[in-house]
Amino acid sequence: MAFDIEMIKKVYDNMASRVDAAREMVGRPLTLTEKILYSHLWEGQAKEAYKRGVDYVDFAPDRVACQDATAQMALLQFMHAGKSKVAVPTTVHCDHLIQAKVGASTDLAVANKQSKEVFDFLSSVSNKYGIGFWRPGSGIIHQIVLENYAFPGGMMIGTDSHTVNAGGLGMLAIGVGGADAVDVMSGMSWELKFPKLIGVKLTGKLSGWTAPKDVILKVADILTVKGGTGAVVEYFGEGATSMSCTGKGTICNMGAEIGATTSTFGYDDSMRRYLSATGRQDVVDAADKVASYLTADPEVYANPKEYFDQLIEINLSELEPHINGPFTPDRGTPVSQMKAEAEANGWPIKVEWGLIGSCTNSSYEDMSRAASIVRQAVAHGITPKAEFGINPGSEQIRYTIERDGIIADFEKMGTKVFTNACGPCIGQWDRAGADKGEKNTIVHSFNRNFSKRADGNPNTHAFVTSPEMVAALAISGRLDFNPMTDTLLNDNGEEVKLVAPEGDELPNRGFDVEDAGFQAPAEDGSSVQIMVDPASDRLQLLAPFASWDKKNISGAKLLIKAFGKCTTDHISMAGPWLRYRGHLDNISNNMLIGAVNAFNQKTNSVKNQLTGDYDAVPAVARAYKAVGVPSIVVGDQNYGEGSSREHAAMEPRFLGVKAVLVKSFARIHETNLKKQGMLALTFANEADYDKVQEDDTINFLDLTEFAPGKPLKLEFVHANGSKDIILANHSYNESQIGWFVAGSALNLIAAEA
Ligand code: F3S
Questions:
Q1: Per-residue pLDDT tens digits for 399-441
Q2: Distance CA 159, CA 63 (A)
Q3: N or C: which end of the chain has fewer CB within 10 A?
Q4: Could you tell me if the CB of 141 is within 6 A of ligand 1?
């Protein structure tokens, strides 16, 4: 599992010259975020100063990480890139496809059986292409990345929104869609809008019941779930340096909940301690040589208002523990106000379950502090009033806390130890009775608490808080319990007051593990066979999309004119469809089923022009495809907003849609369409959307002259024989036109390989 120290040294070797050049270019001191961005430019040294929130810039990330749900399609695509190995260090982590039900050993065995073909596939592709593979049960992607791969000043992307967790070790780590991961794994650049910067100055020091989690719960309360959009949050100040590295990880992790691109902290002693404790003293030695480049220039933190687009100040000495929720992580309630809030809002007071762990709060510090509360309850003879569960973030953490007696402490309270995996955090929780849909309250130390997320019950009120608060609330069985002021009754009816939690930042005896669950790839993977059962309904090898025949597209049928909002969820729904993420044919049966047909205002009901009948969108698309008739999709404003999921572009491509013509695109989806060899077009005149009729046949008049900056002419032939010529703009540059010609970006990479 060895991390790549040579790669890290190379990053540091470039750092000084690139950052110095950027400072010169920008003409002022630089934040840490800017230093990392400018030292990871695809072009090498900066040639211009980029405008925050405006310029799109190509970067060269150092690492890629994928989780098992998103890795399937990413790896299926990568197999077409014609490469023998990934271009940058990459890991795959099996953590999302494991249910929490009975307890670790049973649940893991069930998952290994149920998802065997997926795990086997990911394992063999990883083995073949030089990708580190973390087996089911090894742990959660972000905890493993923090323990093994994150490093100060680095840049990584990951196919999961909480990739941002690695900011705890001073990285810029960003969650992306599979298409972006494939690009970087294939040796291409990765594009990002140069972010805005939010500074968070932490003064004072955490103490008593307050934990790092409370910092981000407070920030979420201030900024709301959208407040960080398009921005990197940079934390600094004495409060930041006095906090543990894993605590910083928790804060960065939940930066995803405020919509931030990512969050980060400057290199400090807490990072040195953590790196050293996790066997990476050589990273410390390398980082120390460039330490001044791994934090902002001193002027920035001395006068932050001048350098950040927005500044927030939090005094940790005054910060109260927070409990955020229900149903949204930005609804913050300080513990002292919970009684009144819960009463006023009718939230169920009785806590049914307390859950700790996940990628958000799985550190040794988290576990030992929560255990200190549990130990008090046991010592005082208090029977906990709620059930209690843990999903440890990694086997290394689980093994170490078992060795140190922490698991035994939890088990004395009847705690269920689930697999080292996402489990309840991603709805993989087979909670007894959840199907009854009863109104109830749970508390957890995870990051997200949207309706249905944990157990599928829309009436479960989930509250997010720190692990030690979860322990206290679960023991008391009350949401309005304030451990700082309230007492509990033990089994003899005596009053007991809990003492503030205590714990160790890092294990005194060091971390330990017997089998971390890592599979190193073959040195030479050329002979490794990738096995996919042709009868599988979950996995399907991809065939390259056909290249353009250099002719105008003619006789295309309108598949759907989507009305109003059409997000990637409308185009490729999630939920039960997640099962088919690795099977393009099967998942294509959800294509555009959530989009509203402008002609009848119904979802998943469009006219098949060949028969005159109305049918599901995928069925009509398949009917056209079967007889070789191309189709096009028309849409409204901001088409494809939402996630970066590449399925939303692959499915129409697979089902024979040639072009998507809309009033405007969400940029990531537009790029994804281009990458899949589709035509992503916008109405030159938005009002032309109204000219599109249900029975239209579309002919491209000048696609043979497709060139950057030159609009395309499309002829819409209506049912009565009348015609409208519509002008369509596009944003293809020369190389993107190359993707279209080749049939997809990957086809082009493969041709060049
Ligand atoms: Fe997994 Fe939940 Fe983290 S789903 S990756 S534990 S946010």
A1: 999 999 999 999 999 999 999 999 999 888 989 999 999 999 9
A2: 12
A3: C
A4: yes
Sign for the pseudo-dihedral over CA of 16, 17, 20, 26: negative
134 by DSSP, 3-state: which? strand
Question: What is the atom index within ligand 1 of the atom nearest the CA of 425?
Answer: 2
- Size (the chain), residues: 753
Tell me how far apart the 2 most distant CA atoms of the chain are, in Å.
Answer: 88
Q: Give CA separation, 295 vs 154, 255, 304, in Å.
A: 12, 19, 13
Best residue for ligand 1 mutational test, from 66, 68, 94, 95 (most atoms within 8 Å of Cβ) = 95
Q: Is the ipTM of this complex over 0.95?
A: yes
Question: pLDDT digit string (tens) for 543-585?
Answer: 999 999 999 999 999 999 999 999 998 999 887 888 899 999 9
3-state secondary structure of 635: strand
C-alpha to C-alpha distance for 4 and 34, rounded to whole angstroms: 24
Distance 141 CA to ligand 1 centre (A): 8
Output helix, strand, coil percentages for the chain, rounded to the nearest 5: 35, 20, 45
DSSP H or E stretch at residue 518: strand 518-519
Q: Spell out the domains of the chain, with CATH numbers in brackets.
A: 5-315 (3.30.499.10), 342-492 (3.30.499.10), 556-752 (3.20.19.10)
Give residue-wise pLDDT tens across range 265-301.
Answer: 999 999 999 999 999 999 999 999 999 999 999 999 9
pLDDT, averaged across the chain:
96
Torsion of CA 11, 12, 14, 16, to 10 degrees: 150
Please tell me the predicted confidence (pLDDT) of residue 3: 63
Question: Using a 6 Å cutoff on CB, does residue 645 contact ligand 1?
Answer: no
Ligand 1 atom nearest the C-alpha of 393 is 6
- Token pair for 694: 């249900």
Q: pLDDT for 189-212, tens place per residue?
A: 999 999 999 999 999 999 999 999
Rounded Cα distance between 1 and 11, Å, is 20
Query: Is ligand 1 within 6 A of the CB of residue 421?
Result: no
pLDDT bucket at 327, cuts 50 / 70 / 90: very high
* CB contact at 8 A, 652 and 646: no
